[in-house]
Amino acid sequence: xxxxxxxxxxxxxxxxxxxxxxxxxxxxxxxxxxxxxxxxxxxxxxxxxxxxxxxxxxxxxxxxxxxxxxxxxxxxxxxxxxxxxxxxxxxxxxxxxxxxxxxxxxxxxxxxxxxxxxxxxxxxxxxxxxxxxxxxxxxxxxxxxxxxxxxxxxxxxxxxxxxxxxxxxxxxxxxxxxxxxxxxxxxxxxxxxxxxxxxxxxxxxxxxxxxxxxxxxxxxxxxxxxxxxxxxxxxxxxxxxxxxxxxxxxxxxxxxxxxxxxxxxxxxxxxxxxxxxxxxxxxxxxxxxxxxxxxxxxxxxxxxxxxxxxxxxxxxxxxxxxxxxxxxxxxxxxxxxxxxxxxxxxxxxxxxxxxxxxxxxxxxxxxxxxxxxxxxxxxxxxxxxxxxxxxxxxxxxxxxxxxxxxxxxxxxxxxxxxxxxxxxxxxxxxxxxxxxxxxxxxxxxxxxxxxxxxxxxx
Length: 458
Description:
InterPro entries: GH. It comes from Fodinibius salicampi. This is Collagen-binding domain of a collagenase. This protein is α+β, with helices and mostly antiparallel strands. It folds into two domains: 10-361, TIM Barrel; 369-453, Immunoglobulin-like (Sandwich), CATH 2.60.40. The protein has helices at 53-62, 98-113, 130-135, 148-151, 179-196, 214-230, 252-255, 274-290, 311-323, 347-360; strands at 15-16, 24-26, 29-31, 33-36, 67-71, 83-85, 91-96, 117-124, 202-208, 237-238, 264-265, 296-297, 328-331, 369-370, 375-376, 384-388, 392-397, 402-406, 414-420, 425-426, 430-432, 437-441, 448-453.
């Protein structure tokens, strides 16, 4: 069954953690979001290889995952579009395709039952250019509701959506003011919300990698917040900008509007690699602190054959993100087998999610902070630290290495334990007594984590 009777009890919904708004809480408890999936629009893949959607979600949850991305996209093989058709086989934007909406409801119910948080993206620009646009019901040639002349929408778009050839994303009154198109867009968003607002485990993102004006994003952010408020429902909204460089001015639109965008997604930083990947994110973390403390999400970690630095670098990004104070991190899809953008829910992803959960289950990440300043004799990209300096210190080594760590603020004797990430195994615990600085040398090459602790939180 879906979530209906207690939906308006805000304390149960996903929201910033009351004791540290850099993180999320769900059902009243703090929660760290980790995830992976082989598709981004999971609801539209009920038969996802090899055993179907429920099995896919179960496999992720078994390995410690609790977070997925869901674009409201229909461009992949086997997907369906949201609108119904006339007897002539032409789309009618005033009618709905029951199969699409049943898939959406089923997906939200499956994830709710498994305590998996869903980050929905309302608009995916890749559905509105090139071949997907040829199939899209909003294309004037595919529906009975308007012509190209009436709507201002072209029938053919051969360029990458980043070229912004499609005026579909400029319909709001404050932008190019296209009321004919906007009424159908609003009806679609209303239908999404009529289903999703009934569930407590949903985060909202307006677009996928947009480079349009903030007028587009702000319009829809206000629109869905207003719709939720009218139903006495608390939701949280962000936007995902296209620029890989987080210092690009387009990111300011979310960084500087904490009352509208109540969390931040900086997935595009995952195009960066090694030390720059960490440094850029930490600069944003500081900037966001100045404009209102909010969760930082990373709903897609790039790392494929020729994308984002490769598979191994993709796994390092998960650890840098979480050690860097992110509230979430998820491995990007593997949809294209010839040039995957990420590692999806592969065995490699499962291994790293499981080990991350093994570490964070033994420490209170919600009280910890990035702590590279405590490390000594460190080379770029050699090691990364987070700490609750009175009680716990964790260090991640991407590929072996040796550093020192300052533990002089610890309130008692510490124990040290290494985590073999690739084997999902803890090494023997070692006492650390009477030292203000501890030498840490990874037991071998490859990824390792180490936890120094004087308490057991869980």
